[in-house]
């Protein structure tokens, strides 16, 4: 049953991640090769993608810039961004000499292959262009800058009303407000406040409306506000108290000392009654536009993701030389440990600036200060270190998670001394699941939940993972043995076997889908800003 649960859970998050955000890419080049005799090249840039894993296909192309070796393309590329995928991109520059759509008859000036993750994590990426044979394309370079398309401003409101018309024969009305945005076709509901019971002079709880849903960012766009009263014995048609129209320009003049006040008008009543004035007054005491940062804001604003791997070298995995062992490397050079490191690391490595991933083994019998050295960086370095170390260690025990969690937590705690969102730590633990220090691990996780840190546990083999499911606090909050609850959910557990026959990217998608949300929730809880402006103009 727990497996079924975690499958749905994964699907939910994969779906939620589907429309994460759109990114706009702006391209410019310097020192392009000159192919035209008597004039300069007329470059154009084509963007190709290969996210489905089959072939490169063209997504879009820019305009052609005439007679220019350092073009700045005006047309921007808009692409969907998914944190949990490795999204490969290819930028190709051509010198366009005639009007044919086919580029194969035009001169090729160079290309760059990279990932979207590399672009967003460096915000502005400049690289040399290469020719088809991978040799440099002269001194040509390409610069790609990324900007998230969004309006992440929200409006904080504090609103009250007075002298609202009574709509209730037996007591006082139960009023609430609805805010509408004007669209081409109709008024679109943007927000509904809570119902204040039995009160004609209500004060609503402070609320927040995304600026985008209130007025699409246009401060002069009309906003309609309806004062309604909740009808309990109802057919769904709540009674209208009155309506007013305004806009953000007017609302922003509100202050506690001088609230923005609006008369609620009920047009039916107005027609009937001769000396009708209004059906009450709505008073806006606070209306402030504030910015809410997204995951990409943190990444583009310089937040680094520090990735650490912990590999379970305990005896329960079986002797690595025996094909039954979870550490046995098949003649094809793989096992579940390597596959898990590879899948998750491929995504994360774009966000880690030094690409020096600390990797720890636990549970092996080795001299205390033994280390594996490798020249390789990034995820390949970990894979190599694992291969070097495997024949030399004696798998032993116990399976203690808490030391490695506490180790990473010490660095995460140091990072909190910087008063910006500069670093977030991700610990990937790959284990066969037979944990020996469950209580200490619970305490370690509860402490780590206060730090910029997330833990991903991938369970390999077919053991009983109930202890792991328990650490993944999804169905109820994890508590330390002392009773202290985790401040937020930071553990994501995934059994590897579930993904054995799935596409290669599926494991990474499932384990990483929650990470952007965990990063945002931590930094916004502490009101920490990215180290630099994510969208400098
Ligand atoms: C597309 O990507 C897959 C793996 O993701 C790779 O095997 C394949 O060679 C790529 N295709 C091209 C045309 O580069
Ligand atoms: C377009 O221009 C290229 C390069 O000058 C040339 O080789 C090709 O034949 C031209 N194609 C057409 C259809 O004119
Ligand atoms: C904004 O709303 C106020 C009323 O709240 C109105 O007087 C003003 O004309 C509106 N401005 C625009 C540009 O529509
Ligand atoms: C990343 O975290 C590890 C601890 O797991 C630490 O040893 C390393 O110095 C950190 N890297 C950076 C760049 O802070």
Automatic annotation (TrEMBL):
<keyword id="KW-0106">Calcium</keyword>
<keyword id="KW-0965">Cell junction</keyword>
<dbReference type="GO" id="GO:0005737">
    <property type="term" value="C:cytoplasm"/>
</dbReference>
<dbReference type="Pfam" id="PF00168">
    <property type="entry name" value="C2"/>
</dbReference>
<dbReference type="Pfam" id="PF07002">
    <property type="entry name" value="Copine"/>
</dbReference>
<keyword id="KW-0677">Repeat</keyword>
<dbReference type="InterPro" id="IPR037768">
    <property type="entry name" value="C2B_Copine"/>
</dbReference>
<keyword id="KW-0732">Signal</keyword>
<dbReference type="InterPro" id="IPR036465">
    <property type="entry name" value="vWFA_dom_sf"/>
</dbReference>
<keyword id="KW-0963">Cytoplasm</keyword>
<dbReference type="GO" id="GO:0071277">
    <property type="term" value="P:cellular response to calcium ion"/>
</dbReference>
<keyword id="KW-0479">Metal-binding</keyword>
<keyword id="KW-1003">Cell membrane</keyword>
<dbReference type="GO" id="GO:0005634">
    <property type="term" value="C:nucleus"/>
</dbReference>
<dbReference type="InterPro" id="IPR002035">
    <property type="entry name" value="VWF_A"/>
</dbReference>
<dbReference type="GO" id="GO:0005886">
    <property type="term" value="C:plasma membrane"/>
</dbReference>
<dbReference type="InterPro" id="IPR010734">
    <property type="entry name" value="Copine_C"/>
</dbReference>
<comment type="similarity">
    <text>Belongs to the copine family.</text>
</comment>
<feature type="signal peptide">
    <location>
        <begin position="1"/>
        <end position="16"/>
    </location>
</feature>
<dbReference type="InterPro" id="IPR045052">
    <property type="entry name" value="Copine"/>
</dbReference>
<feature type="domain" description="C2">
    <location>
        <begin position="1"/>
        <end position="129"/>
    </location>
</feature>
<dbReference type="GO" id="GO:0038128">
    <property type="term" value="P:ERBB2 signaling pathway"/>
</dbReference>
<dbReference type="GO" id="GO:0030971">
    <property type="term" value="F:receptor tyrosine kinase binding"/>
</dbReference>
<dbReference type="InterPro" id="IPR000008">
    <property type="entry name" value="C2_dom"/>
</dbReference>
<dbReference type="GO" id="GO:0046872">
    <property type="term" value="F:metal ion binding"/>
</dbReference>
<dbReference type="InterPro" id="IPR035892">
    <property type="entry name" value="C2_domain_sf"/>
</dbReference>
<protein>
    <recommendedName>
        <fullName>Copine-3</fullName>
    </recommendedName>
</protein>
<keyword id="KW-0597">Phosphoprotein</keyword>
<comment type="subunit">
    <text>Monomer. Interacts with ERBB2 (preferentially with the tyrosine phosphorylated form); this interaction occurs at the cell membrane and is increased in a growth factor heregulin-dependent manner. Interacts with SHC1; this interaction may mediate the binding of CPNE3 with ERBB2. Interacts with RACK1.</text>
</comment>
<feature type="domain" description="C2">
    <location>
        <begin position="138"/>
        <end position="262"/>
    </location>
</feature>
<comment type="function">
    <text>Calcium-dependent phospholipid-binding protein that plays a role in ERBB2-mediated tumor cell migration in response to growth factor heregulin stimulation.</text>
</comment>
<keyword id="KW-0472">Membrane</keyword>
<keyword id="KW-0539">Nucleus</keyword>
<dbReference type="GO" id="GO:0005544">
    <property type="term" value="F:calcium-dependent phospholipid binding"/>
</dbReference>
<dbReference type="GO" id="GO:0005925">
    <property type="term" value="C:focal adhesion"/>
</dbReference>
């Amino acid at each position: 049953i727990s497996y079924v649960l975690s499958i749905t859970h994964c699907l939910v998050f994969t779906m939620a991640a589907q429309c994460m955000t759109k990114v706009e890419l702006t391209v410019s080049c310097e020192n392009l090769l000159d192919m035209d005799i008597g004039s300069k090249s007329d470059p154009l840039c084509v963007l190709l993608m290969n996210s489905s894993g089959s072939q490169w296909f063209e997504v879009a192309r820019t305009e052609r810039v005439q007679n220019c070796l350092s073009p700045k393309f005006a047309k921007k590329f808009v692409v969907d961004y998914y944190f949990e995928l490795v999204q490969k991109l290819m930028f190709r520059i051509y010198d366009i000499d005639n009007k044919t759509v086919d580029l194969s008859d035009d001169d090729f000036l160079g290309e760059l292959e990279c990932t979207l993750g590399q672009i967003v994590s460096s915000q502005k990426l400049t690289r040399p262009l290469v020719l088809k044979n991978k040799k440099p394309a002269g001194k040509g370079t390409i610069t790609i800058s990324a900007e998230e398309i969004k309006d992440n401003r929200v409006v904080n409101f504090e609103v009250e009303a007075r002298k609202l018309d009574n709509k209730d024969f037996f007591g006082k009305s139960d009023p609430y407000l609805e805010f509408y945005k004007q669209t081409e076709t109709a008024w679109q509901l943007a927000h509904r406040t809570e119902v204040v019971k039995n009160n004609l002079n209500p004060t609503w709880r402070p609320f927040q409306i995304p600026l985008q849903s209130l007025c699409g960012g246009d401060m002069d766009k009309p906003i309609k506000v309806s004062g309604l009263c909740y009808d309990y014995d109802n057919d769904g048609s709540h009674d209208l108290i009155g309506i007013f129209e305004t806009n953000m320009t007017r609302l922003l003049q509100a202050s506690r000392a001088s609230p923005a006040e609006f008369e609620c008008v009920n047009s039916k009543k107005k027609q009937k009654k001769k000396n009708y004035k209004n059906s009450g007054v709505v008073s806006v005491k606070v209306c402030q536009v504030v910015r809410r940062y997204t995951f990409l804001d943190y990444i583009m604003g310089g937040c680094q993701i520090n990735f650490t791997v912990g590999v379970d070298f305990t005896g329960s995995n079986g002797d690595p030389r025996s094909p039954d062992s979870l550490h046995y490397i098949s003649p094809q050079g793989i096992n579940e440990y390597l596959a898990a490191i590879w899948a998750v690391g491929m995504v994360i490595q774009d966000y880690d600036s030094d690409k020096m991933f600390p990797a720890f083994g636990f549970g092996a019998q080795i001299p205390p200060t033994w280390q594996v050295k490798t020249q390789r960086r990034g995820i390949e370095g970990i894979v190599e270190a694992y291969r070097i170390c495997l024949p030399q260690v004696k798998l032993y025990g116990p399976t203690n998670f808490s030391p490695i969690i506490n180790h990473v937590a010490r660095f995460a705690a140091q990072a909190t001394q910087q008063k910006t969102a500069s670093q977030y730590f991700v610990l990937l633990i790959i284990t066969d699941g037979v944990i020996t220090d469950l209580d200490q691990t619970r305490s370690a996780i509860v402490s780590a939940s206060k730090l910029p840190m997330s833990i991903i546990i991938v369970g390999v083999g077919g053991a009983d993972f109930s202890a792991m499911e328990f650490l993944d606090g999804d169905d109820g909050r994890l508590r330390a043995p002392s009773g202290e609850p985790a401040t937020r959910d930071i553990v994501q557990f995934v059994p590897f076997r579930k993904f054995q026959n799935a596409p290669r990217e599926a494991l990474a998608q499932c384990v990483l889908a929650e990470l952007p949300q965990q990063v945002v929730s931590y930094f916004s809880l502490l009101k920490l800003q990215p180290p630099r402006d994510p969208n400098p103009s």
